[in-house]
Write a structure and sequence with these properties.
Blueprint lengths: L3 H17 L12 H8 L3 H13 L3 E4 L3 E4 L10 H10 L3 H25 L2 H20 L3 H15 L3 H21 L5 H17 L3 H24 L11
Helix pairs in contact: 1-3, 1-4, 4-8, 5-7, 5-8, 5-9, 5-10, 6-7, 6-9, 7-8, 8-10, 9-10
């Protein structure tokens, strides 16, 4: 039997996916409570709490006379993992992926420079472990993306800046989205391994300039991989939920 939490989560997912997929256009109202209750087989309380969750994610706004209206995509919380998952299911647009690559290019090089200056022995051990997981996945099979994500999250933590560490939690879903596509290219993971190693070696060597240059090469390689993967697809890429 489904718990209330599951019912709420499923309702939020249903409505969120519908909004992100464009079934409810920006400025339009979502169906009224009675209709949603009937369609989804849930109570008004569940609908109201779900709408509150969507409002917190920036997808909708509510008012006594206007009802619940969908907000433009520019106002959505693009650091919310649910929004990223819903966009992945709806189809990843070129604009979305370009924004993501711009964000990585703006943030990761600076963070890696700091990591090269501040990383502790424990930080480096964790990044080494993530790299080893990537290597094993390439050589023996396994979840490469999982360890790729751990590698980059480890680098962001190693910069020892609390605000960037907080951002890294929000960036996780965005990075996973990028990695799911870039590693879909044949031999993509195998070819990216030495690029990751170069970043890690520069951090170990306490060489900020070299670390920054290495991460820029890695990000650019991922951008090219994404472009080539998407060029072979007629429709926007769809991703399964992580």
């Amino acid at each position: 039997m489904a718990t209330m939490k599951n019912v709420h989560g499923n309702t939020v997912d249903y409505l969120g996916e519908a909004i992100v997929a464009g079934r409810y256009a920006a400025g339009a109202s979502i169906p009224p409570e009675p209709r949603l209750c009937e369609e989804l087989g849930v109570s008004r309380t569940v609908i109201r709490e779900s709408v509150k969750s969507l409002a917190a994610k920036g997808l909708v706004t509510t008012g006594p006379k206007v009802g619940t209206r969908v907000l433009p995509a520019e106002q959505w919380n693009w650091f919310d993992p649910d929004v990223i998952v819903w966009q992945g299911k709806a189809g990843l647009t070129a604009e979305f992926l370009a924004d993501l690559q711009d964000l990585r290019r703006a943030m990761e090089p600076a963070a890696v420079r700091m990591a090269a200056e501040r990383a502790t022995a424990q930080d480096i051990a964790e990044i080494e472990a993530a790299y080893e997981g990537m290597r094993r996945a390439v050589e023996e099979g396994g979840d490469y993306v999982k360890y790729d994500l751990l590698f980059h999250e480890g680098l962001l933590r190693a910069c020892r800046n609390r605000m960037i560490v907080q951002m890294s939690k929000a960036l996780g879903a965005l990075l996973r989205t990028s990695f799911e596509i870039s590693t879909a290219r044949k031999d993509g993971p195998r070819n990216s391994l030495p690029l990751h190693r170069a970043v890690l070696d520069a951090v170990i060597a306490r060489n900020p300039a070299k670390a920054e240059k290495a991460i820029i090469v890695l990000i650019e390689g991922a951008r090219q991989d994404i472009q080539q993967v998407l060029a072979g697809r007629k429709k926007p890429s769809r991703l399964k939920a992580a």
